[in-house]
């Protein structure tokens, strides 16, 4: 078996999704979950980009023990100096530097030429080498870079000391066979290529990120750059869970990772919950429907023999269909255990608080599922928000106009307003906008009730646009109008500071 290194960039490329930013405490929680999952490298941030990113790299470096902590830079000395400083507490550290190598980048972004870019690439690696042994170099837009020039750059940076060379398909343009050929070309034509690890970094603009990554691996790449749930800019990055399970299902490839696949589900839920980024229901491996058989023929086949229609056992990814359902009679210990299975470790007062909320919910709802438990764990975050929902009263029905009155607490001060609207959610949001007078438009609005019972907690995801940026908001409540308003407020809290 050949070993494939998993480089997780959920906290860097993944976190670049507008509205999905995490604070340092949340990033540490994700980094620890990634460590338990078994990733080899955690790209913790882009330290020069903001003090928040810098601080997150510092704190993750302190919190994580064995994965390598990586910091991104441009091929610029100042960026590299700052990254080295941010990494000072990391037990194993890597600087990830690079520059655009396609004609689009060389001419239009840098107004430069191939020779000059090559010199800058080598200088960046040499500068990073002054601080760390492990230096990764990325050839941005390698997907659209001429292979002969790409090989020159790869050869030069390896000679300068790069330990890993990343070949990003930055725009998600390549076809799987083209990307595979590119990697093969480098493996065949770069002198000294075996002195470094070649890495894939594929974006999903045409839905081919996973296929391209696998094609790269089949042609010699031994590191893959991935994110949990495939999150990332635009259509996202290659998803970690897909690569891990492809290799587990296709043993004939003779390539293995050290991912503990049974931790996939909990890590996926943690990232989705903290980032307010819903996982699409039909997402491979971690989507709600990934193991749900609804057609009669399939159900019959699975009951006779699971393998008739399932290529993976749900328990292999940590989905425990027989997990204990929590009810009003469940104790603190059961709740704590369920939370820890889902990747959230809580103790003492924090646990007491979640347990109190749990009992309130169990009064309204018979069975408490994993999604409910994660929502309860995240409630404390909502309580710390600057704008909070104080009360909401709505009258609506058939043949009457919906009317809502709302009370908000903004930094502790109370405000009230009322409005009528085209339905209860519209009325409530119009009332809210009378208090918060900002230009903002609701772009997407999804309500989910996961269980079949009418007592289920409604989960609302919203996207609200403000000043050209889209912010994600999440709300959960047994009252779906209240959940909708909570989601709207959650989104607003991200731009009203
Ligand atoms: O997609 C890309 O090219 C990147 C690099 C900065 C590594 O994310
Ligand atoms: Zn990227």
Describe the structure.
39% of the residues lie in helices and 21% in strands. The protein is an alpha/beta fold. The protein has 3 domains: 2-275, Alpha-Beta Barrel (TIM Barrel); 296-380, no CATH class; 385-492, Alpha-isopropylmalate synthase LeuA, regulatory domain (Double Stranded RNA Binding Domain, 2-Layer Sandwich). Helix 1 (24-37) packs antiparallel against helix 10 and helix 15 packs parallel to helix 16 (480-492). The chain starts with a strand and ends in a 5-residue tail after the last helix. The mean pLDDT is 91. It binds 3-methyl-2-oxobutanoic acid (KIV) and zinc ion. 3-methyl-2-oxobutanoic acid binds at residues 13, 138, 140, 166, 168, 170, 201, 203. Residues 13, 168, 170, 201, 203 line the site of zinc ion (ZN).
Which runs of at least 5 residues are low in confidence (pLDDT < 50)? none
For the record, the CATH architecture of the largest domain stands as Alpha-Beta Barrel
Helix content: 25-40%
- Supply the number of structural domains: 3
CATH topology of the largest domain: TIM Barrel
CATH superfamily of the largest domain: Aldolase class I
Beta-strand residue percentage: 15-25%
Number of helices: 16
- Would you report the number of β strands? 16
Q: Could you say which small molecules are bound to this protein?
A: 3-methyl-2-oxobutanoic acid, zinc ion
Sheet with the most strands?
8 strands, parallel, barrel
Average of pLDDT? 91
Derived structural class:
alpha/beta
Radius of gyration: 24 Å
Per CATH, the class of the largest domain reads: Alpha Beta
Strand order of the largest sheet: 2-3-4-5-6-7-8-9
């Amino acid at each position: 078996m050949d070993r494939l290194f998993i480089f997780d960039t959920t906290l860097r490329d993944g976190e670049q999704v507008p509205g999905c930013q995490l604070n340092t405490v949340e990033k540490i929680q994700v980094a620890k979950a990634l460590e338990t999952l078994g990733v080899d490298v955690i790209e913790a941030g882009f330290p020069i980009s903001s003090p928040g990113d810098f601080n997150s790299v510092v704190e993750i470096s302190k919190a994580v023990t064995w994965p390598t902590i990586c910091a991104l830079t441009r091929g610029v000395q100042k960026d590299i100096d700052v990254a080295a400083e941010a990494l000072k507490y990391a037990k194993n550290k890597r600087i990830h530097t690079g520059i655009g190598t396609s004609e689009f980048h060389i001419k239009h972004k840098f107004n430069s030429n191939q020779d000059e870019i090559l010199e800058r690439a080598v200088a960046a690696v040499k500068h990073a080498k002054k601080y760390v042994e492990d230096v990764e170099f990325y050839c941005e837009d390698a997907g659209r870079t001429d292979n002969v020039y790409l090989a020159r750059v790869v050869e030069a940076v390896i000679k300068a000391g790069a330990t890993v060379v990343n070949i990003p398909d930055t725009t998600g343009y390549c076809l799987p066979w083209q990307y595979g050929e590119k990697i093969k070309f480098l493996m065949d034509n770069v002198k000294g290529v075996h002195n470094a690890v070649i890495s894939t970094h594929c974006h999903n603009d045409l839905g081919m990120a996973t296929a391209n990554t696998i094609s790269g691996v089949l042609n010699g790449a031994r590191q893959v750059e991935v994110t949990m749930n495939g999150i990332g800019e635009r259509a996202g990055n290659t998803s970690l869970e897909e690569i891990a399970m492809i290799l587990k299902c296709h043993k004939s490839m003779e390539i293995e990772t050290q991912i503990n696949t049974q931790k996939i589900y909990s890590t996926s839920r943690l990232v989705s919950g903290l980032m307010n980024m819903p996982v699409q229901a039909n997402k491979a491996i971690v989507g709600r429907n990934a193991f749900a058989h609804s057609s009669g023929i399939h159900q019959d086949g699975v009951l006779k023999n699971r393998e008739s229609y399932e290529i993976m056992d749900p328990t292999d990814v940590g989905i425990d269909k027989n997990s204990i359902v929590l009810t009003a009679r469940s104790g603190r210990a059961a709740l704590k255990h369920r939370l820890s299975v889902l990747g959230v470790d809580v103790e003492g007062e924090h646990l007491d608080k979640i347990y109190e909320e749990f009992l309130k919910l169990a009064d309204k709802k018979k069975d408490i599922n994993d999604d409910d438990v994660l929502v309860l764990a995240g409630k404390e975050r909502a309580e710390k928000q600057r704008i909070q929902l104080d009360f909401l009263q709505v009258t609506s029905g058939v043949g009457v106009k919906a009317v809502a009155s709302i009370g908000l607490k903004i930094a502790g001060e109370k405000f009230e307003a009322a409005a009528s609207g085209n339905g209860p959610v519209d009325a409530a949001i119009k009332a809210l906008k009378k208090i918060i007078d900002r230009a903002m438009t609701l772009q997407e609005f999804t309500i989910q009730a996961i269980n079949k019972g009418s007592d289920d907690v409604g989960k609302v995801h919203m996207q609200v646009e403000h000043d050209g940026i889209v912010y994600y908001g999440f709300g959960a409540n047994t009252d779906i109008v209240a959940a909708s308003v909570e989601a709207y407020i959650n989104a607003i809290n991200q731009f009203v500071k």
